[in-house]
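User: Here's a chain of 268 residues. Predict its fold as tokens.
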Amino acid sequence: MTKVLTERRGRALLVTINRPEVRNCVDGETAQGLNDAVDAFRLASDLDVMVLTGAEDPSASPEQSSFCSGADLKNTRTLAERRGADATGPMGCSRITQNEKPTIAAVNGYCTAGGLELACWCDFRIASANAQFGVLNRRWGVPLVDGGTQRLPRIVGLGNALYLIETGALIDAAHAQRIGLVQELVPEGRAVERALEIAATMSQYPQLAIRNDRRATLDGLAMPLAEGLEHEARVHRDTARDPKMAEWLERFAKGERPPPIRPPETHS
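Assistant: Prediction complete.
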């Protein structure tokens, strides 16, 4: 069985961790599959957005579903021995920062330990109502080595991050949205569908501005404000000359107003 599935959906790449029988935990082969999928996405000129999710087990109850439950603790040797693990991260892609295109996590069920770190690697997260989040590896003394200590505080703030990291608490989707870990909540089973809807809309926009805004935002996290403002100006030096931007401004002048993305009003 292929442990990581990839499927093109328009100009989006849907990447699915395909080990539902073990809550989509990641062994060395799965990590390599994630690494290969991210590399393919980065290099594909006809792909704009990547959606990362976990396979559903049709025989399992909603309470047993998972986005990813983290590393396969029964096969940690395969993670450590994977070629390139030091450079790209034990989970396969957590240390890849040279990606210029948007990524979305579509979270169903458990999103814990290294799985939470993978979700935090993505730009933002769409979660089903049954999603649960936590640093459950705390119970076994297993550390966060796939970016959790760096990305989680940047996403939810220091206090919320340390609460999750130090206590190993398991929080539900509503709590995760309150602290900013989740950007949209949708009914159970709709996370992938909604993430792909958002990806399709994003793909219609001029891509250079999105990618340069994304770059300036992420780079600016490590800069003082004045330096960040200068960096923003440098990054966008050529954006205004993008032919796609001129095309969309012409459409605007003609009265075209594509509807904006709006978060769902309800999630249950």
